[in-house]
Design goal:
By secondary structure, the protein is mainly alpha-helical. The protein is about 65% helix and about 5% strand. The protein is built from 23 helices and 7 strands. The strands form 2 sheets. It has a 5-stranded mixed beta sheet, with helices on both faces. A hairpin with a 2-residue loop joins strand 4 and strand 5.
Length: about 550
């Protein structure tokens, strides 16, 4: 039985159908996530409202809200999707889904040319089932498209190499790179890496014609990037980008260069291992084994490719090197989802490391390789399987709003905690099945002063007298919350709406404080929760509420 199973697995591994089976699995995982139609959460909802609200021609300007510095093209394409298919979650996340699916085919195409045949199925399977890559294929964020365009650059490079760098193919390379700069922000690092690698190897080979050709192509890319910078990035950065960079600096997303302390040296170790969690987080407390094995196999793959395929290794690593250089001068962070576009290149080397270990291990030690492969795949496979059964979701406000609507009575009012306002706004006003709460049926709760500096859609002076209020202490913030809620005293039915993103402001747990205060001033009539993702509490704040307790 064991021999038959081993023979079957061997035949499957060497079958030409295997890559297409893996691609099929990857497509199914992405479609399951997409068709699950998960509810939008804070970041996605704020982006959705901004995209729906603005006309196409306005996307060249900074957003009224401090969203991330998304690529201009991402906003335009998602907007076009809503114009064609409506404002549903499906329409908003269609572009990331298409990029996620097409990336599977591009990954396979590029992998065949850059790593050994035995490593291709391993790399492809990791790419197909990696949880973060699946999740971002259906979220209203540009990270799926960043991966797509990074792979597309390499696919075009392979094409022009197959044409032996003839004039037509070089023109295609120049024009496509110049266009891609406008389609994906981090694509500039991939293009810089590829261009520098091609010039470097042409120099070593003393090929003067190719040095001139690749230098000219790189110059065209550079000019296109400069144009993109002044047309778009330069406008966006003063409004949103500098604030994002400041927050990322606090999160240690930039390389300390030169390192001046042990903490700075530790940054390099943490950044290296954290990268191999392949997640949007630096918290690897429960993934240490996975990250450790990934990093070990990656190092082994680098050593192996340095000996046998040095030129390919340099080209594969070149985007990583240029991204690290940008992190060293503090213009681009090296962290989490912002480096997702590098994941395909890391997976190429990891798969090559596994294949080299398999080839170089004696038959008596095959069990060691089996254990490494099992440990390598157990985490992504388990999460992929779990999320097929229970697709990942970070937002659950829609069922809560349905509950409010079902139990609504004349005279009710909703107090929307400020961190829930974008989800509330999207589902109340923009979703195809919107709840259409009128302006007199809800109030947006006051936020700490800093909120209105980050989220510029709201005017600070509407909430604070800036001539009197300069700096807020924790006590000041609590008093503002109290004064804001007390405006609703005397009402018989007040709904208090929260989402999972309730922040702790200077040690204050907003939700706990609001509920404590209302328990002392009113009578709780009802509550409804969707796990920890969203909740609503109904209070009687009339003058006789305390007596009713």
């Amino acid at each position: 039985m064991g021999n038959k199973l081993f023979e079957f697995l061997n035949r499957l591994y060497s079958s030409p159908r295997l890559p297409w089976i893996i691609i099929g699995i990857g497509i199914i995982l992405r479609l399951v996530r997409y068709l699950h139609n998960p509810f939008l959460y804070f970041d996605e909802a704020s982006g959705a409202v901004d995209i729906i609200d603005r006309p196409l021609y306005d996307f060249i300007n900074p957003s009224s809200d401090a969203l991330n510095v998304y690529p201009f093209s991402f906003l335009v394409i998602v907007k076009c999707s809503t114009l064609l298919f409506g404002n549903s979650e499906y329409a908003l996340s269609l572009y990331p889904l298409v990029c996620g699916i097409l990336s599977l085919f591009l990954f396979y195409y590029v992998a065949k040319h850059y790593i050994s045949p035995g490593a291709v199925p391993v790399a492809l399977l990791l790419f197909a089932i990696m949880d973060s890559l699946v999740i971002y294929s259906s979220m209203i964020k540009p990270y799926s498209s960043d991966v797509f365009f990074a792979l597309l650059i390499f696919a075009i490079l392979i094409y022009i190499q197959s044409k032996n760098y003839n004039v037509l193919s070089l023109v295609l390379f120049a024009v496509s790179g110049a266009i891609i700069v406008w389609l994906s922000n981090p694509a500039v690092f991939v293009l810089a890496g590829v261009g520098a690698s091609l010039i470097l190897y042409s120099f070593f080979k003393k090929d003067r014609e190719r040095i001139i050709a690749f230098s000219f192509i790189s110059f065209i890319w550079f000019v296109s990037f400069i144009g993109f910078y002044f047309v778009y990035i330069d406008k966006v950065m003063p409004v949103t980008g500098h604030e994002v960079l400041r927050s990322l600096k606090v999160e240690s997303a930039f390389m300390p260069m030169p390192p001046k302390s042990l903490a700075d040296i530790k940054w390099f170790m943490d950044a290296f291992f954290n990268t191999f969690t392949f997640k949007d987080s630096f918290d690897i407390s429960y993934e240490t084994t996975f990250a450790g094995i990934m990093s070990f196999v990656f190092i082994y793959g680098c050593i192996s490719m340095f000996s046998n395929a040095r030129e390919k290794l340099v080209i594969i690593l070149s985007p990583v090197i240029f991204t690290l250089a940008a992190a060293a001068i503090h213009v681009y962070p090296f962290k989490g989802r912002l480096i997702f576009f590098l994941f395909p290149f890391l997976l190429f080397i990891i798969a090559e490391g596994i294949e080299r270990l398999r080839e170089q291990t004696s038959s008596n030690s095959k069990s060691i390789i089996t254990i490494i492969v099992i440990l390598l795949f157990i985490y992504p496979i388990s999460w992929a399987t779990y999320h097929v059964k229970k697709p990942f979701s970070r937002g659950q406000i829609k069922p809560v709003l349905e509950y409010i609507k079902k139990n609504w009575q004349d005279g009710d009012i909703i107090y929307v905690h400020f961190f829930a306002q974008y989800e509330f706004e999207y589902y109340s006003n923009y979703h195809p099945d919107s709840f259409n709460f009128s302006e007199d049926e809800y109030v947006i709760g006051i936020a700490p002063m800093g909120w209105y500096g980050d989220w510029k859609k709201q005017d600070l002076t509407k909430y604070y007298d800036t001539k009197k209020t300069i700096k807020q202490s924790s006590k000041d913030i609590l008093n503002e919350y109290i004064n804001d809620v007390d405006k609703l005293r005397g009402r018989n039915r007040v709904w208090l709406l929260f989402t999972d993103n309730v922040p702790s402001t200077r040690g204050i747990n907003d939700k706990a404080f609001f509920l404590y205060w209302l328990d002392t001033k009113g009578h709780k009539l009802d509550l409804y929760e969707r796990g920890e993702l969203a909740s609503v509490y109904l209070y009687d704040l009339s003058d006789t509420a305390i007596i009713k307790k």
